[in-house]
Write a structure and sequence with these properties.
The structure holds 2 protein chains of 2 kinds.
Chain A (H helix, E strand, L loop, with lengths): L4 H22 L7 H19 L2 H5 L3 H16 L4 H19 L1
Helix pairs in contact in A: 4-5
Chain B lengths: L1 H35 L4 H11 L2 H12 L4 H11 L2 H10 L8 H9 L3 H8 L6 H25 L5 H7 L2 H16 L1 H19 L8 H19 L7
Helix pairs in contact in B: 1-2, 1-3, 1-8, 2-8, 3-4, 5-7, 7-10, 10-11, 11-12
Classes of the chains: A mainly alpha, B mainly alpha.
Chain lengths: 102, 235
């Protein structure tokens, strides 16, 4: 059976949108349960950390440059640098290191 | 009042620039995947404009290439993007309860890993800030995908490689500062790194998609933390 590309796209779009929009539109009150509040407080940091490592090592051409970028990103963030500065310097680090490695 | 709104929008735009750059790099490679699936540049760009999800789109393109069934595409899409359900829950507590339905629907459209990352860093999330971020980030995603299909192999690999860490750098800038103030968060980040590493390298977990891994780890680690270290006043 031949499938229509635009129907594929529509299915992907509707499914993804419902997942994203339902909690935001349905949960209208402040949640008072301490455990749920704490859970939601920790979720962002855990999920961002899980997404960052070890994925950053695999995103670059060599794991070494990815590792250096991670150290630089962690260090600059610790020093309170802005989002923009942290990402730009991480990119520059990868570029320079891969220049040396090759 | 007018002034603060403008300032918020501009701050959103500033935070959106690195996201847009990172998106450009990631979606460029996504465009190459779309091309391999037999899609045109326009079809791929429409997909990116509507879906804004790297893993979700990547899986979608793979399934389209395999001429998979519609139901299968729907299920895989739900699985790959299920983490956005959690993020959306967390964001619902970051916005004022008075926020209108239209704002919620628009903000929901752009719950992505990166936009979520900068959003949770706000004390209280205002829609106008989100729109600033989106205005800078969203075009990068769509244009990158479009160009990826057209000229996937022109941009030097080294440049793509360098740009691809922009997103992770941003994540670090979001989760590191709170770790400085809160020892529990610092400990959780270290545990998350270790658990994520094991989960990604151990052969027994090889069959689990990365989206599912993220959900499982997030739920387990956050839930244990919530039970052991309940937060009193923040959330």
């Amino acid at each position: 059976m031949e499938h229509n590309v635009y129907i594929y796209i529509l299915i992907m779009a509707v499914t993804t949108y419902l997942i994203r929009v339902l909690p935001l539109t349905l949960i209208r009150k402040e949640i008072t349960n301490v455990t749920i509040r704490s859970f939601l407080f920790y979720v962002p940091y855990v999920t961002l950390a899980v997404m960052t490592f070890p994925a950053i090592l695999e995103s670059t051409q060599s794991p070494v440059s990815g590792a250096v970028a991670l150290v630089i990103a962690l260090g600059l963030s610790w020093m309170g640098k802005s989002l923009f500065q942290v990402s730009v310097f991480s990119c520059i680090a990868v570029f320079l290191i891969e220049l040396i490695l090759k | 009042m007018e002034d603060t709104k403008k300032q918020l929008f501009v701050r959103g735009m500033k935070d959106g620039i690195p996201i847009g750059l990172g998106y450009f790099a990631v979606s460029f490679t996504l465009g190459i995947a779309a091309k391999n699936a037999g899609m045109t540049a326009l079809q791929a760009a429409v997909t990116s404009a509507l879906i804004n999800a790297s893993a979700g789109e990547f899986i979608g393109f793979t399934l389209i290439a395999a001429n998979a069934g519609y139901l299968e595409v729907m299920i895989m899409e739900a699985v790959a993007n299920a983490r956005y359900l959690l993020m959306s829950c967390a964001l619902s507590q970051k916005i004022s309860p008075k926020t209108g339905l239209l704002h919620r629907m628009l903000m929901g459209f752009y719950v992505t890993d990166e936009i979520f990352g900068v959003s949770v860093a706000q004390k209280e999330l205002k829609p106008i800030y989100s729109y600033g971020v989106i205005s800078m980030a969203a075009p990068g995603w769509t244009i990158g995908t479009f160009l990826g299909v057209l000229m996937g192999n022109i941009l030097p690999l080294r440049v793509v490689s360098a740009l691809s860490v922009a997103l992770y750098g941003m994540f670090a800038a979001v989760f590191v500062p709170p770790a400085k103030e809160n020892k529990v968060v610092a400990g959780l980040i270290i545990i998350s790194f270790i658990a994520s590493f094991i989960f990604n390298k151990a052969a027994i977990f090889a069959g689990i998609s990365s989206g599912i891994k993220i959900i499982i780890l997030t739920i387990i680690i956050s839930l244990i933390a919530a039970i052991l270290f309940p937060v009193k006043n923040e959330a």
